[in-house]
Write a structure and sequence with these properties.
Structural class: alpha+beta
Number of strands: 19
Distance between the termini: 26 Å
Helix content: 25-40%
């Protein structure tokens, strides 16, 4: 499955940051991580921290799947509003899920400091605005739900949004203090390099072909014919899990993004704010470190990479038309356009934990707009799983829920 189009901004911006060998011998480990994106880098870091002999493999170059196409907006807000998630899974699970995403942003900041990261982690506020008059009513309900549960939020009227951000044609919105952005492609590479020094073994261009369950371990055969004996496998394969798990647990979507030319002056009003709206699919935007505006949206069902990429320029026009609604006099100069694939679950939550058909295995599959923050939570969860302990979110993130 091809997870990105031919011009992902982060891949072009950063180039080839590191390269690793393919597997050329039989290996043995406590933990084998399959998937070398941002999720794999975070889980590998945790396993090394916990003292496990860890190997990671990826069939591509590292981070060349969906991590190179992410917009890297770090939000505690889940795609399903808090009040609606409460109706779906109960208040306890909904609030725990939102708070886990909030705490994940703090944890990611600490990780970036630990690794002396140059990936541009930056604290930002988050503006979630009503794009239609009828949306303002339920968005105010969402504001009250968040405020009641201790989230640091402020309600802005349309005139406040116009004054603060120069956005027209809005109908009020929630301004949250918790949010951030990062270059996830670069940060994942930094985490890999940090942990290779501590004993992590990485093999790219190495594809899992077969897994045989043995007593107390799995025997994994890769495309070169060599084998890895692993006590546990952790699958961090994101949307490609759809190829491995046959049940209908996630809907694949295509999303589109454009990045402007550099112009710091134009974007100063949202330089420290993540922005998204109540449209379905929603428009979202953030600035980059070097002073570009990144805008995404236009989501639709995924029917294959060729069909997705064939409408790239049509989607660019659609996104910029939506931008024009709130910035009528603004001219956007496009520098990069790309598409990516993401997964949408019925409740906006990830799948983290065991699957009954896969012995000695865990899955860490972050979906929706919170893939990175869910993966941070996944670090904590897997760490507990490996010690035969439970996590309070397990029942909300499990398969078959």
């Amino acid at each position: 499955m091809d997870l990105k189009s031919n011009e992902p901004f982060w891949l072009l911006k950063n180039g080839l940051l590191a390269s690793y060998p393919s597997l050329k011998s039989n290996e043995e480990c406590d933990v084998l991580i399959i998937g070398g994106g941002i999720t794999g880098s975070l889980i590998a870091h945790q396993m090394i921290e916990d003292g496990f002999a860890t190997i990671l493999i990826d069939k591509r170059e590292l981070c060349n799947g969906s991590t190179s196409a992410t917009t890297s907006m770090l939000q505690y807000e889940i795609d399903v509003p808090l009040y609606e998630l409460t109706e779906k899974i109960g208040e306890k699970g909904a609030v725990l899920s939102y708070k886990a995403c909030s705490e994940a942003i703090d944890a990611l900041e600490k990780l970036s400091q630990l690794t002396k990261s140059r990936a541009g982690f930056k604290r930002k506020k988050s503006l979630y605005f009503a794009s239609k008059k009828k949306d303002a009513e339920w968005l105010k309900k969402e504001y009250e739900a968040r405020k009641q549960n201790g989230f640091d939020v402020e309600w802005l009227e349309a005139k406040d949004i116009l004054e603060k951000f120069e956005f027209e044609n809005t109908y009020g919105g929630i301004l949250s203090k918790q949010g951030a952005s990062i270059d996830a492609f670069q940060f994942a590479h930094e985490l890999f390099m940090h942990n290779v020094k501590k004993g992590l073994k990485i093999f790219d261009k190495t594809e899992m072909i077969k897994v045989e369950e043995r007593k107390g371990f799995n025997l994994i055969t890769v495309d070169s014919g060599f084998e890895i004996k692993a006590k546990k496998i952790i699958y961090c394969i994101g949307y490609e899990s759809k190829n491995l798990l046959k049940e209908n647990f996630v809907n694949l979507k295509s999303t589109y993004a454009v990045v402007s030319e550099i112009d710091r002056k134009k974007f100063k009003n949202i330089g420290s704010t993540l922005v998204w709206n109540t449209d379905d699919p929603y428009l979202y935007m953030r600035t980059t470190d070097e002073g570009r505006l990144l805008i995404g949206g236009g989501d639709e069902d995924f029917y294959g990479a060729e069909k997705r990429d064939a409408i790239l320029h049509k989607k660019e026009k659609e996104i910029l038309k939506n931008l024009n609604k709130i910035k009528p006099d603004y001219h956007f100069y496009t520098d990069f356009v790309w598409a990516g694939t993401f997964g949408e679950t019925k409740d906006g939550l990830p799948y983290i934990g065991e699957h009954q058909k896969f012995k000695n295995c865990y899955f860490v599959l972050g979906f929706g707009g919170n893939g990175i923050t869910f993966s941070i939570t996944g670090m904590e969860m897997v760490s507990l799983f490996m010690k035969n302990k439970k996590h309070p979110l397990s029942k909300y993130f499990k398969f078959g829920r």
